[in-house]
Design brief:
26 helices, 7-stranded antiparallel sheet, 6-stranded mixed sheet, 818 residues
């Protein structure tokens, strides 16, 4: 027996080895050699696609750059040859430059250089002299471009030039890295009136490349048609050796993307190159081969190790299992059958079989009943909430669903075949007769000494408010709101138990709302039933027994004959409970006890919100903080209804969060703030706290982001006014641009420094000048108006009369007579 056993063992081991070695051989001899090549090929194709996409995006944006000089020459408003004659022409040029903001997402700034006056006009409307470019922080100061060379280049420019990315100190002493395009006006002209400097930020180009693909981790470079580097995400690569220069020189002039594997500085890279057919620029993208294939190598080695361990484990298991067993498959089947097949039942006769079947059916029915009972409360709440949101147009439609969950507002048992004539499940053919005698009042739920409570006045309103319901049944909806989940669960269980305590003639059901922490009461009752007093006592019992505080809002009672009345009463109850939450008034309140809405509130709030948005756009933190406090004071004013408070709060928070989004800081924090700000239920203190804290954060961002404005002393302001104050073009905008400040900041600074606003000061200066001319000369009023800074005589006469109380002619006659 020893030899047959050994032969069988050998055959089984060989068969197991063959079955296991076949997939392993497939992995080792096919998957491993070709997987690396496939990954390299896909990475090269993907890298070439990324390079091609980025080149297309750059060509699209630079097309506008190269077309801009032609557009400026075609603009008839630019009279650059006349700019030397009058300051008015310079103002026109500055205003026209503001229209060229079409590609602000790509172009940082555009400067139009007018050769005959030596000024550069920005697309923001600012003007700089050539000397300003030599002063860091005043103009655009190039650290690696000598000022004399810059001026000479601008005056002799006759063909487009592109300067590589370099450090530039912009107005305000901030340092940026800019790619600069220089083009003559017109392009290629021998007698050019000027030139155009177009500046593009390096980080804008870097972000454009990263936006093509979020998973791109390589380095890319842009070279001009002569091989000079313009933009580089990693300068060390082409500065370390000449490998990159040799690669760029070897790029052909034919447009299109190519890819391959190259060694640069001793490292292998996946290289994709592309040449633009628009301007001849060369684009190069490098991805280290090690990064692309390192993950695959790790997976391959781990897989090989795992397969080896599995193979070794299988060999051991097979050897131990079949060492003393000549029929391993049969034994394994027997073991599986013994483990997983259920135990055989003893033989049963007919009676036992019937009894066993009935027991199984009873158990299955019991399990089904338990599952149905578990879903009944949810079905009941859904049906009742559907009633208050207007889901059922008739009582018959409601009755079809309500009978299944034991809900009947007429007091009868659900499922009964006959119902009283006044049942809500039957729409009456005609209205209730107003002369019908009212039924006897139900037994009150509260003691008689409480009849003089606020519920008494509410009952009077209920009884006399609707002439169509004299003594008939009415339908009222109330909303009970809690502050926490624990209080809500306690109150829901307590209210469900209180449904058995309604007096005769009153049917009421509590259900959970779809909104968090709210319970809805739907009650059909006679007009004489004190529902408010009932709910007040219910609340007191909750506080005394469970320590749970609820806020209760009661809607107006509606016509019992129409189920739609429940929807109207529910909406009123929602507004009432919101009033209780926000205003912290009496814990139980009816809709009729809410005050009237203020008139003119919408336009006033809209005006303040528009001012807030404008202040955020103008980066004025003091104005933002002031307007925010005014809005907070407005929503805290007495008499403001809760729905208006909620509306003003949501609009204010929306404006502030939109302002925070502009700065792109702390994205996750901003998302959490947005989620917290738009929760459906907040108290007054919580709403004002959210507005104030988010406004303070926004003001911090504005102060940290906006560079400090230049200050202007009184002597500097007076010197500029002495020079330009009598020029008709002298304006608040011109003065603000001169000192590098915003219009609002300069206006505030001028009033603080000079004691009056800018317009009044200039007006009085011009009138005083004209008074001196009226006294000392015989010139005409038209000549005096022009010398005093007015564009026409009529505006001069109006201003003179406004300040002096008389016309210039009458003043001159009075002076001569004196």
């Amino acid at each position: 027996m020893g030899k047959p056993k050994a032969n069988l063992l050998t055959k089984l081991l060989i068969s197991y080895f063959l079955v296991l070695l076949f997939p392993i051989a497939m992995i080792l001899f096919y998957y491993y050699p070709y997987s690396a090549d496939v990954v390299k090929e896909k990475e090269l194709d993907w890298n070439a696609h990324i390079t091609e996409q980025f080149m297309t995006s750059m060509d699209t944006f630079t097309r506008y750059v190269y077309n801009l000089p032609y557009e400026l020459v075609q603009n008839r408003e630019f009279r650059m040859y006349k700019a030397e004659e009058s300051d008015y022409q310079r103002v026109l040029i500055a205003n026209e430059m503001k229209k060229y903001n079409a590609t602000d997402a790509f172009i940082y700034n555009t400067l139009l250089y007018v050769k005959n006056i030596g000024y550069l006009f920005s697309k923001t409307g600012s003007a700089y002299s050539v000397q300003d470019l030599a002063i860091p922080g005043v103009g655009f100061y190039y650290e690696d471009w000598p000022h004399e060379e810059m001026v000479d280049t601008l005056n002799t420019l006759n063909q487009p030039i592109v300067r590589p990315v370099e450090n530039v100190i912009i107005p305000g002493h901030n340092r940026l890295r800019l790619l600069t395009f220089l083009q003559p006006l017109p392009v290629g002209g021998s007698n050019s009136p000027g030139a155009v400097l177009i500046m593009v930020r390096e980080d804008t180009i870097l972000r454009m490349m990263r936006s093509v693909s979020e998973i791109y981790t390589g380095d890319f470079f842009i070279f001009d048609n002569e091989g000079r580097p313009l933009v580089a995400s990693n300068k060390k690569i082409y500065e370390a050796s000449d490998d990159m220069s040799a690669l760029v020189k070897g790029m052909g002039a034919d447009p299109g993307a190519t890819s391959g594997i190259e060694r640069i500085n001793g490292i292998s890279y996946l290289v994709s190159t592309s040449v633009s057919d628009k301007n001849g620029w060369k684009y190069v993208s490098l991805i280290p081969v090690s990064e692309s294939l390192q993950g695959l190598r790790t997976i391959q080695w781990n897989t090989a190790l795992l397969v080896g361990l599995v193979l070794l484990f299988e060999v051991i298991v097979v050897y131990i299992s079949i060492r003393k067993n000549y029929h391993p498959i049969k034994r394994l089947v027997d073991v599986a059958v013994s483990l997983f097949e259920p135990q055989q039942r003893r033989p049963m006769n007919e009676i036992d079989t019937i009894r066993y079947t009935l027991n199984e059916l009873s158990a299955a029915n019991s399990r089904l009943d338990e599952r149905v009972k578990g879903t009944l409360p949810i079905m009941r709440d859904n049906i009742l909430f559907g009633l208050v949101v207007g889901q059922y147009g008739t009582w018959e439609a409601f009755a079809q669903e309500a009978d299944k969950v034991g809900v009947a507002f007429d007091g009868s048992q659900p499922g009964s075949e006959t119902k009283p004539q006044g049942s809500p499940f039957h729409d009456p053919p005609s209205p209730i007769d107003p002369a019908q005698e009212a039924p006897p009042a139900a037994v009150p739920f509260v003691p008689a000494q409480e009849a003089s409570s606020p519920a008494a006045s509410v009952l009077e309103t209920m009884q006399g408010g609707d002439p169509a319901l004299p003594g008939g049944t009415i339908l009222t909806v109330a909303v009970l709101a809690c502050e926490s989940e624990e209080e809500f669960n306690t109150a829901a269980d307590f209210c469900r138990q209180a449904e058995d305590r309604w007096p005769d003639g009153v049917n009421g059901y509590f259900c959970r709302s779809v909104y968090h922490h709210e319970i809805v009461l739907i009650c059909a009752h006679p007009p004489s039933f004190p529902l408010q007093a009932f709910l007040t006592q219910l609340q007191e019992e909750l506080v005394g027994a469970e320590g749970t505080r609820v806020m209760i809002g009661i809607g107006r009672p509606g016509d019992y004959r129409c189920p739609r009345a429940a929807q109207t009463s529910y909406l009123q109850a929602l507004r009432t409970v919101e009033h209780v939450r926000v205003r912290e008034t009496a814990p139980v309140l009816t809709f009729d006890e809410i005050g009237a809405t203020h008139s003119g509130a919408v336009s006033y709030v809209a005006e303040m919100l528009q001012s807030l948005e404008l202040s955020i756009l103008k980066n004025e933190p003091e104005m933002v903080a002031g307007l925010t406090e005014r809005l907070i004071g407005y929503i805290r004013s007495d008499g403001m209804p809760p729905h208006m408070i909620r509306s003003v709060y949501l609009n204010t928070v929306t404006v502030i969060i939109n302002g925070l989004q502009r700065f792109r800081r702390e994205d996750q924090t901003l998302l959490r703030l947005t989620d917290a700000a738009f929760k459906p239920r907040y108290t007054m203190e919580q709403m004002t706290g959210i507005i104030r804290e988010s406004s303070l954060k926004l003001c911090e961002f504005i102060r940290d982001t906006v560079p400090a404005a230049r200050t202007a002393t009184r002597e500097e302001i007076l010197a500029v006014i002495d020079e330009k104050g009598l020029d008709p073009s002298c304006s608040l905008q011109l003065m603000a641009d001169h000192f590098g400040m915003s219009v609002s900041n300069f206006s505030h600074h001028f009033k603080k420094t000079m004691g009056q606003n800018f317009k009044e000061y200039i007006e009085r200066l011009r009138i005083q000048t004209s008074i001196q001319l009226l006294r000392e000369t015989d010139e005409t009023l038209e000549s005096i108006a022009q010398k005093s800074g007015y564009t026409n005589t009529s505006s001069y006469i109006r201003a003179f009369k406004k300040i002096m109380g008389t016309t210039p002619g009458q003043y001159r006659n009075t002076h001569k007579d004196a």
